Amino acid sequence: MDSHILKTHPDSTIECRQLSEEFLEETLSLMEKVYFAEEKIVGAFGLTQDSQTIFEERQVMKNIIEDGVSVIAIDKNNNNKVIGACLNKIHVKPGSGEETFYGKIAKSSKASAIKSITEFDDYVIRKFFELCQVDCVLEFTMIGILPEYRNRGIAKTLYQIVIDLGRVLAKGVNAKKSVDGRELAVEPVPETIVGVCTSEKAWQVGEDMGFKLVATLDYEKFKCEEKTLADVQVEEISVVSMINYRHQDLLNDDVLWVVRILGGKIFHCGVVKFVIKLTLSLYSFLLLAQTYFFVFAPDADQLIQYGPLFFQMCYATLGMFVVLLRNRMIEDVMEVIDLWDVKSAGEEVEIDDDDQVFFTNWLMQKWFFGHTKCLIVLIKLTFFVAAPCMTVHGYQIIYTLQHVKFQMYMFNKYVEELTKGFTTCEY
Fold this sequence. Notes:
Blueprint: E1 5-8, E2 14-18, H1 24-33, H2 35-38, H3 40-44, H4 51-65, E3 71-75, E4 81-92, H5 101-108, H6 112-132, E5 136-145, H7 154-170, E6 192-197, H8 200-208, E7 211-217, E8 223-224, E9 227-228, E10 237-242, H9 245-253, H10 257-263, H11 270-296, H12 300-325, H13 329-336, H14 359-367, H15 372-381, H16 383-418
Parallel strand pairs: 5-6
Antiparallel strand pairs: 1-2, 2-3, 3-4, 4-5, 6-10, 7-10, 8-9
GO molecular function, one term: N-acetyltransferase activity
Protein name: N-acetyltransferase domain-containing protein
Keywords: Membrane, Transmembrane, Transmembrane helix
């Protein structure tokens, strides 16, 4: 298979690949017809199709493509026609007095619209460095899909490929592909992926893919020929950033993913939250009632008898409050701790896949090569059974002790019944 091919879309006739020289001109033409014609920000800055503007926008795209992280989608049933493209740029934080990639273009541009657009981009990319506190970012620069191929998930597939490329680069693997056959250096390595959403729909896609909002820009600030973006009624501009690669990579490839789900992620589900809120309301009422009687009608015997379960209910109520109000411990820890890459311990312990973690995977490949994938999926499904089984012994102990306690209580009652009607004496 061609090393440029990255993924086949669920529609098997559509193939997603890194951009190569044979598709370069067709990709540039597609972006001119789709992205530059339809993108709201571009339109707001009054981009025209005069010869100077067309020349400069092509140069900008070629400079972006040089980084080797741009991807396209082609229709194999239509003579490998380019039907979509996502052009991406790696930016390194500029030093004091230095210009960004966009800043350099803005200074040299002779087309007013290109100058205004790149000045806007320069502001945004500097804002990203400030807000994300990183030295290198991979930017979703521009994406375009032909109208007849839209609403088929192609854009989302292209985005996911770029995210995967970013993860690979973050591990130190050179996944860049130049359009002219040159060998590209793995450096600089991006630490996060960023992008600008100019519509609610675009932001929804970003949120679904794991991005988080880092800022919202007021488009009153940005002008082109004395008009602001607000004057031309562009939709709100939201600046979004994806969480750090290494953290995202850890959460995606985590062998303890079942524990992570049971320890927090399951409580992010709306249905689970609703059930917890109902339970919390009931517990809160019962606690208030019990507290009232313990305080205003104190009875030592009742306090001794019901105290343990009362304090147990207090702990459960506190737990439900924490789960509802602050249940992001894993995410918070991952965001503030710089995790060591596995390569820090040396090449001999590098872990590239599950086969080096699960001995069963190795056995499946050795003994059942033709059915490896199915058997590995079957083994992973057993995790849902194994996880509860790992904690079942604690529940068994609690269950047994409660029954023993109850039997002792019944034995005491039985002895009391036996002694009824008899007087006791000491000899």
